[in-house]
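quick one before i forget lol
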Amino acid sequence: MYRFSNTLIGFLNLFTLLASIPIIGGGLWMARSSTTCESFLQTPLLVVGFVVLIISLAGFIGACFHVAWALWVYLVVMLFLIGTLMGLTIFGFVVTGEGAGGVVVPGRNYKEYRLQDYSPWLRQRLQNPEYWRTIRSCILGSKTCDKLATWTPLDYMDKYMSPIQSGCCKPPTACDYSMATLVAQDPDCYKWNNSPTLLCYECDSCKAGVLESVRSDWHKLSVLNIVMLVLLIGIYSIGCCAFRNTRRAETDYPYGQNRMTKVRPRWDYYWWRWFHDKRDQLY
């Protein structure tokens, strides 16, 4: 029964080893594509795939072939992975904790979003022109706003809009473009353009819609991270048992048999013996 942990770790790592192959393949396939959104995702996908591959290979070899150093590497990397995942989960909840979830628009089935409601760290990320240019290209490539091109005024009253559609594909609902309007309006009202490549992509409401989507997705990912943490901690505990069994197997003694282990003196024992030998020689 004491080899059960080794067998279980071996099967688990064989499964994750096979699962890492399509992850790496997907990252390499994205690397061949010229689409901005896909190239934006390829790096983390490749990193995750190769890390899973290395960890799984080390755990499988160590557990099935009783290689203690491979299991030791497996446990060290697993501990680092658990710590990193725990830190990312806490960071995700802190960063995405702010955000009112949108403002209800009277008579509409959608909400509008304000940039100042979100975390300063997230807002600072969007202030980088290159970073926003990448996100803007992704929105254009996804053709999110094209779906609204055929909407009638009644559709705008009744249909639901995603946060990105609400912020990027139309001006704020409060905007008034009549010639008689002299009242100061939201600055986003003046950034709006009817051109399909411009629309409200430079509006703060568009950036707020992106942050709302990020906040929602990050919350879902954080919940998944908690589940993964519980699973990884359980696998790590089984891995510790497998490592202990592998170390025992290297001694060629069956489990549970009484045996004496070699006594290893403390580091200062040899200095103490040298000192007393010299003293005996003098006297």
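fyi The beta strands are 103-104, 111-112.
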